[in-house]
């Protein structure tokens, strides 16, 4: 009974009709469905092979139109493409049969030994061998295509020497070596460091798959971080490894940046001085940074879930509630400074910036960045009280208060400058040169010399009187009492002064001095000019009193007394006139 082995298309190339009939009978005996074509020579075979695809070609090596068996076999193999070719020969020489196999035929049979069974077996074996070889070839082609077209660098190494046996284009592109250069290298030529660690890994996994991270040099000397996956294979009969090299340099850089970013986040948020909190739509704390412990004295866990407003001073709540109306309208805004209660019940002044990040799934809330400004608030209060005292003092006195910044060459004046000197704000200049221009010429050098001692002799107190020009061109006498403020290097930085208008006092003193001068002149007149005529009168009177009876020229003596009296009268009237002029 014939076996149902499937339909076969077979081309028999045989010039002997008897042999063809015998082959046809053998095949028909073994196959239920069979289509046989007969080519009597090579020319006919060409026509059949061009027009039809066969499952097997049975070839007689003795054809009339080709004398060389080798040429005949190679030509038929080329025309048959992947179709298996079974050679029929009358040569019993085994070496010759093996030689035909080396030319590429699937099998060879001796005509004298063939029968239906071994012919059918040879055909089926040849077909199956061809199918397996075709699958193997396709698999190899797929592997080669995957290997060559892989976007990741790949290579094959000799497992014993670590020489490169094959590299793909991606490896050539990444490392910069040509294929020929790779073939002259071992993978050790790429290693940057840790040679002992890599050698141990290769040795311990000689027959196993392993993964390792290494550093490689490129041809240009650039260092790459590579994640290596290596698997043992047989390659061309050699123990080898196929290796996939994944360049993770940029990944590691990104991880390093992420790590730095996380460190910055930790430094800014977790270890920072500001309190960073996330507030939900109901104004409850969903997160608060550890710095709350330093500022408010309470652990963040105890604040999470509590309402923000329960810790805000009741006087400040209306301001905050009025400001939060902007939520959803602007992305970020600053709250007015407010008081927040700490764990001890004290009030801490906070300054907060709100950022609306409710649309960010990583946050899903309002981010509040709060800074403790309690110390600044206390300083501000002290400064405000100090300024208030200064304003009261400035208003209570008519003195001019000056503040001169040496580095900026800039004066600041109290409002008394308008009353004392009559300058309008437009006429007022704040530079030192303007002030020097208003000094009286007779006082200029004295004032400059006195102020220079601030820098040359480190003088701290300055007390000097001089004249200063007013807006109307007149000069006023002023008393300038100044104190020098120095910086950390003991260098003068500011001069704070109090200037008093002493014009009236100076005028009064000048009047007294002039009166004193008049009195001194009168005293001198009395002591010198009055004494002379008075002495003459007194002498003449004594002469008349004691020697009146012996005088012959009494009339002359009386005339002299009269003349001296008139001279004395003139002196007295002169003194009287000077006194009246002074009064």
UniProtKB/TrEMBL annotation:
Domain Response regulatory, chain residue ranges per copy: 9-126
Pfam family, one: PAS_3
Enzyme type, top EC level: transferase
Location of 4-aspartylphosphate modifications: 60
InterPro entries attached to this UniProt entry: CheY-like_superfamily, HisK_dim/P_dom, HisK_dim/P_sf, PAC, PAS, PAS-assoc_C, PAS-like_dom_sf, PAS_fold
CDD domains reported in the protein's UniProt record: HisKA (cd00082), PAS (cd00130)
Keyword Phosphoprotein: yes
Sequence ranges assigned to domain PAS in this UniProt record: 139-183, 261-325, 379-458
Keyword Nucleus: no
Residue ranges occupied by any PAC domain in the UniProt entry: 462-514
Reactions catalysed: ATP + protein L-histidine = ADP + protein N-phospho-L-histidine
UniProt entry keywords in alphabetical sequence: Kinase, Phosphoprotein, Transferase
Gene3D superfamilies tied to this protein: 1.10.287.130, 3.40.50.2300, PAS domain (3.30.450.20)
Annotated EC: 2.7.13.3
Signal peptide: none
Protein name as annotated: histidine kinase
Organism: Salegentibacter maritimus
């Amino acid at each position: 009974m014939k076996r149902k082995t499937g339909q076969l298309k077979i081309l028999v190339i045989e010039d002997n009709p008897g042999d063809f009939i015998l082959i046809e009978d053998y095949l028909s005996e073994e196959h239920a469905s069979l289509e046989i074509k007969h080519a009597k020579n090579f020319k006919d075979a060409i026509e059949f092979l061009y027009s039809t695809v066969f499952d097997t070609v049975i070839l007689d090596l003795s054809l009339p139109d080709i004398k060389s068996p080798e040429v005949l076999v190679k030509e038929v193999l080329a025309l048959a493409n992947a179709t298996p070719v079974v050679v029929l020969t009358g040569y019993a020489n085994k070496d010759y049969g093996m030689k035909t196999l080396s030319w590429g035929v699937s099998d060879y049979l001796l005509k004298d030994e063939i029968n239906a069974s071994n012919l059918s077996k040879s055909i089926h074996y040849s077909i199956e061998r061809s199918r397996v070889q075709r699958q193997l070839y396709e698999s190899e082609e797929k592997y080669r295509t995957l290997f060559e077209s892989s976007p990741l660098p790949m290579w094959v190494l000799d497992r014993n020497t670590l020489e490169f046996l094959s590299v793909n284009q991606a490896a050539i592109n990444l490392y910069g070596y040509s294929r020929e250069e790779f073939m002259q290298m071992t993978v050790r030529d790429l290693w940057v460091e840790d040679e002992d660690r890599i050698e141990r890994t290769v040795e311990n996994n000689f027959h196993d798959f392993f993964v390792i991270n290494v550093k490689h040099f490129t041809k240009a000397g650039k260092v790459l971080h590579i994640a290596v996956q290596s698997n043992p294979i047989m390659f061309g009969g050699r123990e080898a490894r196929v290796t996939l090299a994944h360049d993770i340099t940029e990944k590691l850089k990104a991880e390093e940046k992420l790590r730095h970013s996380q460190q910055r986040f930790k430094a800014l948020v977790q270890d920072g001085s500001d309190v960073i909190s996330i507030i939900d739509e109901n104004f409850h704390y969903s997160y608060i940074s550890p710095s709350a412990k330093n500022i408010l004295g309470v652990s963040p866990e105890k604040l999470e879930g509590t309402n923000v407003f329960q810790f805000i001073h009741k006087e400040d709540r209306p301001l905050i509630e009025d400001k939060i109306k902007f939520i959803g309208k602007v992305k970020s805004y600053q709250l007015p400074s407010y008081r927040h209660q700490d764990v001890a019940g004290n009030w801490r002044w906070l300054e907060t910036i709100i950022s609306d990040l409710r649309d960010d799934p990583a946050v899903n809330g309002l981010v509040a960045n709060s800074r403790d400004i309690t110390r600044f608030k206390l300083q501000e209060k002290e400064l405000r009280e100090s300024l208030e005292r200064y304003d009261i003092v400035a208003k209570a006195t008519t003195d001019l208060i000056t503040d001169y910044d040496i580095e900026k060459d800039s004066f600041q004046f109290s409002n008394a400058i308008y009353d004392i000197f009559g300058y309008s704000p437009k006429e007022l200049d704040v530079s030192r040169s303007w002030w020097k221009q208003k000094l009286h010429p007779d006082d200029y050098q004295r004032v400059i010399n006195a102020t220079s001692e601030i820098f040359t002799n480190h003088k701290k107190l300055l007390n000097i009187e001089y004249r200063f020009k007013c807006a109307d061109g007149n000069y006023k006498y002023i008393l300038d009492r100044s104190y020098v403020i120095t910086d950390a290097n003991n260098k003068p930085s500011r001069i704070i002064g109090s200037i008093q208008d002493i014009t009236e006092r100076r005028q009064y003193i000048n009047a007294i001095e002039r009166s004193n001068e008049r009195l001194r002149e009168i005293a001198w007149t009395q002591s010198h000019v009055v004494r002379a005529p008075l002495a003459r009168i007194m002498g003449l009177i004594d002469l008349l009193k004691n020697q009146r009876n012996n005088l012959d020229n009494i009339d002359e003596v009386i005339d002299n007394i009269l003349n001296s009296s008139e001279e004395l009268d003139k002196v007295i009237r002169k003194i009287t006139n000077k006194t009246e002029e002074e009064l």
